[in-house]
Design goal:
This protein is mostly helical and 199 residues long. It has seven helices and two strands. The chain has a single domain, classed as Up-down Bundle (Hypothetical Protein Ta1238, Chain: A), CATH 1.20.1200.10. Helix 1 runs antiparallel to helix 2, helix 4 runs parallel beside helix 6 and helix 5 packs antiparallel against helix 6.
Length: 199
């Protein structure tokens, strides 16, 4: 007869069984439902980090890869802030800062001077790397919406997280177009309009 009993957990295993009933712990220590808005927001940031990593693995431009890696590392800061109550988040050593948002402004400005980058809306898929960045961008927008819901409920101690996520999405859109332009491929939604704007 097969033994169907649950084996004991391995020491230091990732499997704790603590979340088997649909609950989890916040960074601040509270136990909440995994469907809680705060968990949803932090989980979407985790998803964003993974897609940023996918985009980075497909990227062959060292400068773009460096930006994507920086954003990945910064999402850990965002996730920690979203994973704590406002009182605890305000005391975190590392928080989303105005300097982080300003760095994204600088990234955007550096790309926007490229001829043709703002010529039209994009049709994702012209390059694999660009498409992967676009997926990350759409997840960043969803993360932003989750953070806005949390903020509307009084769950964020600072609006800087919202500014940062909004700016990140803009930069990711620009990075996707940069990858297309540098490969010389057509990624515009309306190529004829894009070509007219570049004349």
């Amino acid at each position: 007869m097969n033994d169907t009993s649950t084996p004991p957990p391995v020491p230091n295993s990732i499997i704790t069984r603590g979340g088997d009933a649909g609950q989890t712990q916040l960074v601040s220590g509270e136990t909440v439902s995994k469907a809680d808005d705060r968990v949803e927001a932090a989980g979407t940031i985790d998803e964003l980090n993974s897609f940023l990593g996918l985009a980075r693995s497909a990227c062959d431009n060292a400068a773009v890869c460096a930006v994507l890696e920086r954003l990945q590392r910064e999402t850990f800061i965002v996730g920690a802030e979203l994973s704590a109550t406002p009182e605890v988040a305000a005391r975190l050593k590392n928080k989303v800062s105005a300097e982080m948002t300003a760095a994204l402004d600088a990234d955007a400005s550096a790309i926007e001077v490229m001829q043709g980058v703002l010529s039209d809306w994009a049709l994702p898929g012209a390059t694999f790397a660009g498409a992967a960045i676009d997926v990350a961008r759409s997840v960043a927008r969803r993360a932003e919406r989750s953070a806005v819901r949390l903020a509307n409920a009084g769950g964020l101690p600072s609006d800087e997280v919202l500014r940062y996520l909004n700016r990140m999405s803009d930069v990711l859109w620009l990075l996707g177009r940069k990858m297309e332009l540098e490969k010389g491929v057509e990624g515009a939604l309306r190529p004829e309009r894009a070509h007219r704007s570049q004349k």
